[in-house]
Amino acid sequence: MESVNIKKLAQLLNLSIATVSKALRDSYDISQETKDKVLALAKELNYQPNPHASFLRKQNSKTIAVIIPEIANNYFTLAINGIESVAQEKGYHVIIYLSHEDFHREVAFTKLLHTGRVDGVLISVSSTTTDYTHLHQLQDKGLPIVFFDRVCEHFNTVKVTTDDYQSAYLAASHLIEQGCKRIAHLAISQSLSIGSKRAKGYLQALQDNGITPAASLLIECTNDDEQDVKLIRDLLEQQQPDGIFAAIERYAIAGYELCDLLGLNIPGDVKIISFSNLQTASLLNPSLSTITQPAFEMGREAASMLLKKLEKKNFQLPDESIVIQSKLIARKSTMK
Asked: Where is the HTH lacI-type domain (predicted)?
């Protein structure tokens, strides 16, 4: 079967090659009627864009980079699925860079991207990132950047997040409603926007319910599993909280394992709730109460905004935060 290219589509539709090319890119200066005709024929003839030819012609690679801190967290797995769903629809490839929570790896990745191998970047920064010079340098070179989940609040671009402060407030309030008085927070680095907002939401919920926050119950965990286990074990043995709010699911799972080791009953001795997109949360013993983030939707929204910038000449990424609501799902780990 003869391969179909833009020139062939143009001939069949009696349109110029430039018009067909713009229609396929959803350009603003092509009518919707023309776009529909071009897309319909392209689909009928199974037209496949050639990213290499596009790159040679316009120095566009039809590829976007996604920089994330980890892949074990179920949130990022779902977010990548959302990103991929949009990229596939628009004919873009996705390259994933994994920083492993290492600022220097993140910087090294951005230096690679200076070569023009991608058209834009989606990023969730590492927990050790406090300097954003490397990202400003990319933006200054004309490479569009969109943040999701872990964002730089003062960066002039789109930032897609969930309502971290309010969700944390609801999580701590839920533990209080279930009778908890000594509520610990297993916090992620507060240099991250999500870490700071979740800790503030937790503290505000305690204060609003007449509970004086105790510094000994706010534990800033690390990226070292062994050290985190020691921190959480010391918390359980020495501070004896009756409720735990975990900022990420890894800390909650460590809490489950340590409660089992120490002979503590969940939820009898200690109740646990966590930010988590763990699909098996309902199957844990006991089932884990969660703040479930709209990870797929957040990834999809971030990718949509980036590709809108890449596809539409007259569109500039606004300096705004797009907030998508999370959901509290109460299960047996916080029952009275």
From this structure: 4-58
